[in-house]
Amino acid sequence: MNLPEASNHSVQAIAKSLVPRIIPRAEHGISRKNISNGALRVLYRLHEAGFQAFLVGGAVRDLLLGGRPKDFDVATNATPEQTRTLFRNCRLIGRRFRLAHVVFGREIVEVATFRGIGEEGDGDRHVVDGRILRDNVYGGIEEDAIRRDFTINALYYDIADFSVRDYVGGIVDLQQRTLRLIGDPEQRYREDPVRMLRAARLSAKLDFAISAEAEAPIRTLAPLLANVAPARLFDESLKLFLSGHGLESLRCLHSLDLLGQICPATARALEGPNRERFGRLLGHSFMSTDERVQNDRPVTPAFLFSALLWEPVRSEAERLLGEGYEFANAWSVAVERILHQQATRIAIPKRFAMAMEEIWLLQPRFELRQRKRVMRLLAHPRFRAAYDFLVLRSHEEPELCEQVQWWTQAQGMNAHDLSESLAVPSPVRSDDAPATKRKRPRRRKRKSGSAAGGAETATQIPGE
Ligand code: ATP
Ligand code: MG
């Protein structure tokens, strides 16, 4: 279904006239066995208290696709306050969207009241330049359905009779493996530019095509992402990159010209002189992160962001060296600059940014083999992450294989033997490596006309 661009009043009228397609229990594959205990308890309790209660969103979509949802969202006509009175283990959160969280041990079930369609000024809605900044106008299920993003995310599983309700053609799109925005795509992206990132993410995660209408405005409207709060973009980037489909998400973002909006330096480096090597490094790091996520092994955003911004940092350091910066300064200034630029788009929390800084600044120190330096580096709290990063780089830079071998051996030796074997000084580079605990670097004036040269052709991330 494609709603025309319309005033809120006519959208309201459309919502009222929507007739759901109801798929009875016998005709769909959702079994209560596959719904979490917490979600079932919430659904039943709301229902017993006389409210409507539906499982909605990604959980219904994933269950219909035969997958295992990672979280369960509930939609109801109970207000957040009414929901709170039904559950002891419930807290109300959010200002932009007020929600109830019902907590069962490690599981949190999110309960949202049907969102309505009202004019600016109705109830608690705040819209600026077409962007919805706060939305606490409540309505019926039909209005709630057309406020959602994609048709496949607007399917409702009714706990009253175990049927699935489809108001916007989500079932057909699910069968056709298509992501179709509800309503006018341009208007929906303007309301919330993050929907463009969601299109890329869900297309990558589900291996669905983005409908031509939903894809068409993305390249033009991508710059609207500059208006989204960097903290929200950090959350979104974790979902994009650390949910087990990071590599495919990255490819999708790149091909829709969205990567430049959230990681501008990365997108530029993927068009720069080292684009092939960098593309392979990203391919490698994202693939291994995806594997770890899929095997339930821990992953850290610091490592992945270190990879995403590695070529920008490295080439900036090189450029500064060319300008006459002293070695250690060139690296620390480069790191500082790239992190600062990135922070204007994605607010990477301090603890991760600090880890990234250390991972990067330890890289040149792997070249130094004096006894004291080696022992100090091995004892560094970030040694392991930095070493893993060196291993990652060595896949793309074969000249680093000797270093990897050396440091692998060094780790396997006991401290005494290692120290003895390093007693004879080995040839080292004369410049000093950057210290990770930096004094404020002395800045030099930038020479004009020394910006890194970009190449015309865009890189392929492997497999693109
Ligand atoms: P995932 O399985 O990765 O969690 P999801 O679709 O469930 O995907 P959530 O962020 O959990 O994503 O959102 C839950 C539901 O809320 C969506 O399915 C969709 O119906 C609705 N939704 C989320 N974000 C938006 C948005 N920006 N605009 C409109 N509806 C949204
Ligand atoms: Mg979800």
Describe this structure in words.
- This protein folds into two domains: 8-182, Beta Polymerase, domain 2 (2-Layer Sandwich); 230-421, cca-adding enzyme, domain 2, CATH 1.10.3090.10.
- Helices cover 48% and strands 10% of the residues.
- It has helices spanning 8-17, 37-48, 58-64, 80-86, 141-147, 170-175, 185-191, 194-206, 212-215, 218-221, 230-241, 246-255, 259-262, 264-269, 275-294, 301-308, 310-322, 327-343, 350-362, 371-379, 383-396, 401-412, 415-421; strands at 21-23, 53-56, 73-76, 90-93, 99-104, 107-113, 125-128, 131-135, 155-158, 164-166, 178-179, 209-210.
- The strands form three sheets. The protein has an eight-stranded mixed sheet.
- A hairpin with a 2-residue loop joins strand 7 (125-128) and strand 8.
- Helix 1 (8-17) crosses helix 5 (141-147) and helix 8 (194-206) packs across helix 12.
- The protein is elongated.
- It starts with 7 loop residues before the first helix and ends in a 43-residue tail after the last helix.
- Bound molecules: adenosine-5'-triphosphate and magnesium ion.
- Magnesium ion binds next to loops.
